[in-house]
Amino acid sequence: MSTETKPATEAMSVEELRAQTRLLADELPGTLRRITLRAGGISVDVEWENAPAAAPAAPLAPAAPAAPAAAAPEAPAEDAPPAGLVKVTAPLVGTYYQASSPGSEAFVKVGDIVEPGHQLAIIEAMKLLNSITAEVKGRVHAIHAQDGEVVEYAQPLFDLVPVD
């Protein structure tokens, strides 16, 4: 008898999860890009086309003096991404690895120059190793994933600055 009721209980929790996800999607602003539901260990991932804007910081902070306001354009210039930045994203969901085996040197580090076809990382999915390669010649500007981290489809992995 317990084997008959267990699948019904699991199906009910999936239906409840689906219903709660629909309510969440309807209540929050923006255009949905993707919803992922998982029944085992219950997980919901919701991604919007354009994430809802955060509350502006200006009303929370007092007015800035004129001198710091003049210095403000310099800070964003330092944090601004370089022109022509190429983002390498995960082509599938899986576990990200920065090297061919544990303890080995990483395929790339920030500052390395890579050629088209140069291996950047590996994503393991369903016991298959999928090579992530550069599509352009460029310098590795940023690495967004950590070794052993589970990555999602279209999650940014690397930023490359094209070089001639």
> What is the mean predicted local confidence, pLDDT?
76
Element-by-element helix/strand order = HEEHHEEEEEEEE
**Radius of gyration from the alpha-carbon trace, in angstroms:** 22 Å
Q: How widely separated are the two ends? A: 69 Å
Instruction: Give the number of helices.
Output: 3
Poorly predicted sequence stretches spanning 5 or more consecutive residues: 1-9, 51-77
Structural class: alpha+beta
Care to count the β-strands? 10
How much β-strand is present in the residues?
A: 25-35%
- Main sheet record: 4 strands, antiparallel
Measured as a percent range, the helix fraction is 10-25%
Strand order of the largest sheet: 3-10-8-5
Assign an overall shape. Answer: flat
Short description:
The protein is of the alpha+beta class and 164 residues long. It is built from 3 helices and 10 strands.
What does this structure look like?
The protein is 23% helix and 31% strand. It is built from three helices and ten strands. The strands form three sheets. A four-stranded antiparallel β-sheet has the order 3-10-8-5, with no helix packed on it. The chain has a four-stranded antiparallel β-sheet with strand order 7-6-4-9, with no helix packed on it. The model is unreliable at 1-9 and 51-77 (pLDDT under 50).
